[in-house]
Design a protein that fits this description.
Layout lengths: L1 H16 L18 H11 L3 H21 L4 H4 L2 H13 L3 H38 L5 H17 L6 H29 L19 H18 L11 H20 L38
Length: about 300
């Protein structure tokens, strides 16, 4: 958790430093001399500051598990979130129907929130990847169905029984991704100057594949997952996240130097005469039609 938090803080903080020129921060008021301090506070709190909430949630989960064990709940059942919540509510309102109802409402609301968020973000990721590879836009609703189908299959397969293995597997991939991003920003962008100073998000300006980021993540995540399943020996198995961290730090600058950073930008001019930024460096508010999906952005 500490390593993940440190890497996320570095990545998010450095991205935020150039985030004024990136379209993903358009939901915030445009920064200017009148609101710069408040804008930075919002960016930091909404970015690396989330690690504080994440840590509190982990501590809360550990407390509920301990509380369940203290109330003589069997170990196998104490790991179930529903049983943890029920034990917690019973401490407040006492055993009985009220605690059961409160637990049910809490679980239902939580699951609706989680599933809606995951269905939305997952369909967005699936659509972007599919459109990028095939140059065809089938619509978000198609991959919303794909994402929900995968979720249903995992639920019917009783995913909770092997949840720890899934989370461990995912942690290696997550660590690889976050550390590769942080390494690319720190070394390739600021120290080696091989990466463009302004983050580029326009598809026409980018290659379909950049071995620096995606290649580094594949290697770091792949080897750490192999280590996680014991493929690199039992000694290294408990330290599989460290494999992801170390490789995630060293691979981006090595690959960037080997390729001379040529895969960051496909071209330097997008052929659009409109200015990209206003006087404060904020992204232009002009709307242009995407030739792939035919929506205005």
């Amino acid at each position: 958790w500490v390593a993940f938090g440190a890497a996320a803080t570095v990545a998010a903080s450095l991205i935020a430093q150039i985030g004024e020129q990136v379209d993903f921060l358009r939901f915030l008021p445009e920064p200017g001399p009148h609101n710069r301090k408040r804008w930075w506070l919002a960016v930091i709190v909404a970015g690396p500051g989330w690690i504080v909430l994440g840590g509190l949630k982990m501590m809360g989960g550990a407390f509920l598990a301990f509380l369940a064990l203290q109330n003589e709940v069997p170990v196998a059942r104490a790991l179930e979130p529903t049983r943890m919540y029920l034990t917690g509510f019973e401490q407040v309102v006492g055993p009985g129907a009220v605690a059961v109802v409160l637990t049910g409402v809490f679980v239902i609301v939580s699951q609706i929130k989680i599933n809606v968020t995951n269905a939305y973000s997952g369909s967005l990721a699936w659509t972007n990847a599919f459109t990028r590879v095939t140059k065809h836009y089938p619509g978000r609703i198609v991959f919303l169905g794909v994402n929900l189908t995968i979720a249903l299959i995992l639920m019917e397969a009783n995913m909770f029984d092997f949840l720890n293995t899934i989370l461990g597997f995912y942690a290696n991939c997550g660590m690889a991704w976050v550390v590769v991003v942080a390494s690319d920003i720190v070394f390739n962008k600021y120290l080696l100057k091989l990466s463009p100073n302004t983050p580029e998000f326009r598809r026409g300006m980018l290659y379909d594949f950049n071995p620096v980021g995606f290649g580094s993540m594949l290697i770091a995540a792949g080897l750490s997952v192999i280590a996680f399943f014991g493929g690199l020996g039992e000694t290294l198995r408990p330290y599989s996240p460290l494999v992801a961290i170390v490789l995630g730090v060293v691979l981006p600058p090595i690959i960037a130097i080997a390729t001379n950073g040529k895969y960051y930008l496909r071209r330097t001019d997008d052929g659009i005469a409109l200015p990209m930024f206003d006087q404060y460096g904020n992204p232009s508010g002009e709307h242009l039609k995407c030739h792939v999906c035919h929506h205005d952005y």
